Amino acid sequence: MNPATFLLALAAAALAPTAAFAGDVDQADRIGRGAYQAVLGDCAGCHTAPGGAPFAGGAPIATPFGTLIPPNITPDRDTGIGDWSLDDFRSAMTRGVGHDGIRLYPAMPYPNYAKMPEPDIDDLWAFLGTIAPVKNDVDANQLPFPFSIRTLMIGWNLLEFTPKPFAPDAAQSAEWNRGAYLVQGPAHCGACHTPKTIFGGDDAGKALTGASLQGWWAPDITAAPTTGVGSWSKEELVAYLATGVNGHTIASGPMAEAIAASTSKMTPEDLGAIATYLKTLGPSDAARPTPLAASDPAMKHGAAIYVDNCSACHGGRGEGSKDLFPALASSPIVAQADATTLARMVVIGSQGVHTAAKPTTPAMPSLGWRLDDAAVADVLTFVRNSWGNAAARVTPGTVAKLRN
Questions:
Q1: Is 43 annotated as a binding residue?
Q2: Which of 34, 256, 361, 396 falls 20 to 30 Å from 324 in CA-CA distance?
Q3: 56 and 104, same domain (yes or no)
């Protein structure tokens, strides 16, 4: 694992020992391994609020059923998990049932963590015990009635959750199996990128093909050539996960958070394994639509808007500028079935990810103050049907829904 992460974990252990997490002869090794498990599981990404103490409770998560706030998982005995036992923690991670039998919501991705082997869970527990206890009482469950009734999760688990460890595929390489384990297990990629059933569980038949998430569209990450990562090389996919930037796109929104807190801190070997696995999923493209004719009124209007508002950064033919402004030509991000993220970028703007390797964090300014819904729809329709792209037109109603 990253030596710096290991040393930080050891320092934390020395500064904040907690009796509830008794050590043993190999505790230092367990803490180091557990720190890396926290990276793989993106624990800090959810359980650390912007500007808040590490792991003391996160920012609100909007779900189709209401709002949840990731709780305090520091060893504070009153407001954190300091009075939990190791068995409580194992149960929460693999069954969705925490201390005193409290039922967890699957926004905490225990269906994915259930694939983790017990030693890895135990190592994570050892690491969490070294974090400085923080008194921060988080009201995690802010769902409206009846979803606020946690016992409903008994029925949800029966319908949507079958706990079982990861089963390697003997026909695949060790690298492929490692990638499959990470994607399906601790990295819980499907929690964002897989469409959900009406009950909020993963639609297994459409795994990783893209899903709506907190006002964003988490894109298709299968090997589909026009909407997924099929046109990316393995090296380009690894670069994106490691730095948030490659020749095709720049991460922003929830993916920027995941890269900053998790994938940018993974080992090159694990990133390579993830890329190897994803590149084998598909291709699953539906029939590619025919681009709208340049003579279409929306295309003509959108072209004019693009020249005035977008071409200075993204280029006259959507070529972009390396590491600063993403290319729009032949772009899987542009060609997604859902244009929510694109509309959000234009209306609200966005900030690129910050990583040690790529610290620039280029920004997309908000244009919503000067472009109405019809103008945003037309410029996006133009981009989605130019320079090798072909996708459904964007309607003013889609933009209005996002704006509201």
A1: yes
A2: 396
A3: yes
Mean per-residue pLDDT over the chain, rounded: 90
How many Å from the N-terminal Cα to the C-terminal Cα in the chain?
A: 44
**Is residue 248 part of an annotated ligand binding site?**
no
The annotation status of 313 as a binding-site residue, yes or no, is yes
Give CA–CA dist 274/234, Å, rounded. 9
Q: Is 166 domain-assigned?
A: no
Distance (Å, whole) CA 390 – CA 290: 6
Whether residue 192 is annotated as binding a ligand: the answer is yes
DSSP conformation class of 26: T
Report yes or no: 278 and 220 within 8 Å, Cβ to Cβ: no
Domains held by the chain: number? 3
Q: Name residue, tokens 């969705």.
A: 96
- 189 marked as part of a ligand binding site: yes
Can you give the residue range of the structural domain that contains 198? 176-278
d(CA 172, CA 277): 10
* Residue in 92, 50, 84 with CA at minimum distance from that of residue 69: 50
E-state strands within 267-404: 350-351, 363-364
CA distance 266 to 272: 10
The token pair that represents 219 in the structure block: 């894109």
Tell whether 193 is in a known binding site: yes
Q: What is the pLDDT of residues 140-167, one digit of tens each?
A: 888 889 888 999 999 999 999 989 899 9
Cα–Cα distance measured from residue 86 to residue 169, given in angstroms and rounded to the nearest whole number: 30
From the list 382, 374, 249, the residue with the least C-alpha distance to 307 is 382
pTM for the predicted model, two decimal places: 0.90
- Shared domain for 35 and 134, answered yes or no, is yes
What is the sign, positive or negative, of the torsion defined by CA atoms of 44, 38, 260, 132? Answer: positive
Which residues touch 58 (CB under 8 Å, ≥6 apart)?
45, 46, 47, 48, 49, 52, 69, 70
Asked whether residue 46 is marked as a ligand-binding residue, the answer is yes
Separation of alpha carbons 389 and 384, rounded Å: 5
Q: Say if 322 falls within a structural domain.
A: yes
Same domain for 193 and 123? no
The predicted structure's pLDDT at residue 284:
56
In this model, does residue 6 exceed pLDDT 60?
no
Residue 384 lies in a domain: yes
